[in-house]
Amino acid sequence: KIYQIAVVNGDGIGEEIVPAGLKVAEKVAAKYNFNIETSSFPWGAGYYLKEGEFMPENGLEQLRGFDAILFGAVGLPEVDDTLPAKDYTFRVRTSFEQYVNYRPVKLFPGIQSPLRDKTEQDIDFVIIRENNEGEFVQNGKIMYPDTPNGMAIETSIFTRHGVERVAHFAFKLAQKRRKRLTNVTKSNTLIHSLLFWDTVIQEVSTQYPDVEYNKMYVDNASASFVLKPEVFDVILTTNMIGDILSDLGGAIMGSLGLGGSGNINPEKDYPSMFEPIHGSAPDIAGKNIANPIGQIWSVALMLDHLGESEAARDIENAIGKVTAKGPLTKDLKGSATTTEITDAVVKAL
Ligand code: NAI
Ligand code: MG
Questions:
Q1: Residue 227: its pLDDT value, please?
Q2: Which residues are tagged catalytic?
Q3: Does 144 score more than 70 pLDDT?
């Protein structure tokens, strides 16, 4: 079996950790008897500086035929990242209907969480973030900004179709895990959009009577991430809430550099895209000190999505072996390089 993978390193540490992820992918492919063929695309903020756009006009068409996309992160300090036209990530996620953003949070062996009394059993849940609509549809305008009457509006969009499909994914995932789903919402103040969100999810929940369904407001959920993460199994939440909570999830795992994720189109009508939860970390780029584990974990999530579940589990176990004994990178108070961690994971495989 041959998998065609589009590779987009992006900017900053993406150039270092994506190749690290591919090294691990090659090792596991040899072990499990499949092949990975890659094609690289030099897109992102660096590309923008040369070409005036984050990816070519026909970039999506170029990606369309691949089995999956392995992505690092885009963004450079000298490039304004507020202009939507520049946004590679947003275009791929929405155009390819990657409506599930799958973000597992778990404590790897040997890693000290900043929640000092919490164990591997306590920190083990998945954030399912709605990835195509909600607060991030970029639907708004700024009016008369330089006058005393200046104002701005930004309208979220939630559709029944959009909420139902991500809810079904999350409930099915909960059925395979500890059968508990928490809808993280803020419908007590966003009384139109998130009331609708809650209503649709509540309806979907009746089709999964074996899953314990509950609702939690995001303010309480933020505190619970820190005080009692053990109450979570599958979290289902909106685009913006999920974005914010997943960095908090990365933090309680011990480092943002550990978090992997998938932007998934469950129907496989389009390629899905796998990337670490963090950004391009320009502050540490080019030094071979970035933690590659979030990217390597993203490779595992990619292989799982492609049907190579055994290989995926093997990578996760290999990561655990490395975190248990070291070496570790600087973000985890170690002194190992990106290359050393990558080689250690390959060796563990
Ligand atoms: P960031 O996630 O890049 O960095 C936050 C902090 O975490 C930094 O101190 C960084 O050094 C550290 N860090 C992140 N990943 C690490 C790793 N693998 N190993 C060790 N330390 C790591 O977030 P920031 O600084 O807000 O954004 C930097 C750029 O990345 C911006 O241009 C932003 O727009 C972009 N960005 C891109 C994303 C994407 O392409 N999906 C997601 C988030 C941010
Ligand atoms: Mg984010």
A1: 97
A2: 144, 186, 219, 243, 247
A3: yes
Q: What is the pTM of this model?
A: 0.95
Instruction: Please compute the mean of the pLDDT values over residues 19-29 and round it to a whole number.
Output: 98
Task: Tabulate helix, strand, coil % of the chain (nearest 5).
Answer: 45, 20, 35
Name which of 81, 78, 84 is nearest 141 in CA terms: 84
How large is the angle between the packed helices 193-205 and 160-176, nearest 10 degrees? 40
Residue 304 lies in a domain: yes
Q: Which run of H or of E encompasses 46? A: helix 45-51
Q: Which ligand is nearest to the CA of 103?
A: 2
CA of 3 to the centre of ligand 2 (A): 28
**Total tally of structural domains belonging to the chain:** 2
Task: Give the pocket of ligand 1 (CB within 6 Å).
Answer: 13, 73-75, 81, 89, 256-257, 275, 278-284, 290-291, 294, 331
Q: Are both 116 and 248 inside the same structural domain?
A: yes
333: domain range?
1-99+259-349
The answer on 91 and 121 residing in a single domain is no
125 lies in the same domain as 237 = yes
CB 273 within 8 Å of CB 262: yes
Kindly give the number of the ligand 1 atom that is closest to the alpha carbon of 14: 18
Q: Do 74 and 129 sit in the same domain of this protein?
A: no
Q: Return d(Cα 251, Cα 144) in angstroms, integer.
A: 39
Q: Who surrounds ion ligand 2 at CB < 5 A?
A: 243
Q: Can you say whether the dihedral through the CA atoms of 344, 329, 314, 299 is positive or negative?
A: negative
Q: What angle do CA 220, 224, 225 make, to 5 degrees?
A: 120
Residue whose Cα lies nearest atom 17 of ligand 1: it is: 257
- Is residue 106 included in any domain, yes or no? no
Whether the pLDDT of residue 86 is over 60: the answer is: no
Distance of CA 29 from the midpoint of ligand 2 (Å): 30
Question: What are the Cα distances from residue 324, in Å, to 11, 21, 321, 333?
Answer: 30, 19, 5, 14
Among 235, 252, 269, give the residue marking a domain's end.
Answer: 252
Task: Identify the CATH number of the domain in which residue 240 sits.
Answer: 3.40.718.10
- Interface confidence: ipTM more than 0.85: yes
Ligand 1 midpoint to CA 164 (Å): 31
